[in-house]
Each structure stands twice: as structure tokens, then as C-alpha cells.
Amino acid sequence: MRRAALGSTLFLVAAPGVVAGVIPWSITSWEMEGSLFWGSRMLGAALIAAGATMVIHSFVRFVIEGIGTPAPAAPTEHLVVGGIYRHVRNPMYLAVGATIAGQALLLGQPVLLAYAAAFGAVVFCFVRLYEEPTLRSQFGAEYDAYRRAVPGWIPRLRPWTPGGDR
Length: 166
Known about the structure:
Layout (H helix, E strand, L loop, with lengths): L1 H13 L1 H13 L9 H27 L26 H17 L3 H29 L1 H9 L17
């Protein structure tokens, strides 16, 4: 598990850290633009906090439950279906997108909304063309049951229980 934790920490810095940190900074230099309504800035801060919390929660689930990392080069031994994954299959991507959108609102930088949309399109294609087929190949019927029960992008309100409700 120590190896999974180290790998996940490195991947956290390398992937979400770059996508939701380094790239938005390189686009905006974290400069606030315009005179946005304070509510927009507060919503932005809330999205950033929620997104960062969900990303960290997801990475911890990969270490503890999956005994692996989110990195394709060091996948989990077990399918991760606990925690936030009981509500939605792709919480990490949603969290990173929320973080970028939050930065756009907090900083008053609409260019980050365009970046968030581009990120979303790339991620959607990656999930459909690589991640889902890979998980189906690795976990078979277990993944198929999970995929049928838990939506990919819009969280279900009631958490799914493996072997339970649909």
C-alpha cells in the first residue's frame, strides 16, 4: 500500500496538479479581472474547495480500496466503487473540471471556462475510447454491473451498493 500511496501522490502532482494548477496559472498568472459580483467569486471559491476535496478523496480511494493508482501505468488491483464512486463513476474528472471552472469565476477569467470545456471534451473522449474498454477488460462483469448502476457524469443522489439496488 505504501507504493500505491507514493505513486498516487506523484500522479496527483503530475496530472491534476498540472491540469488544474500549472496550466490555469500559465494562462492567467492568477490575476483577478473585472469587477465580478462577489457571489460569483464566492461560488468560484466553493467550486475550488469542493473540487480539491473530491480529487483528494478519489486519490485516497485508489490507494486504500484499489491498492494502486489512477495512473494508467500503475492501475489498481481492485475496481474502486466506494466513497464518492458510489454516486458517479468519474468524480476525479468532474472535480478537476469544477476546480478550473471555480478558478474562472473566482478570478473573473472567462478564458478558463473555455479551457474547462476543452478539458471536458478531451476527458470524455479518453474515458470512452480508453478507460471504459480497459476497465471492462480488466474487471469484466464487475465493471459492467457497476457501469449499469452508476452514471458516468451526473451523480446519482442515493449511493449505489454493490450487489444491491440499481
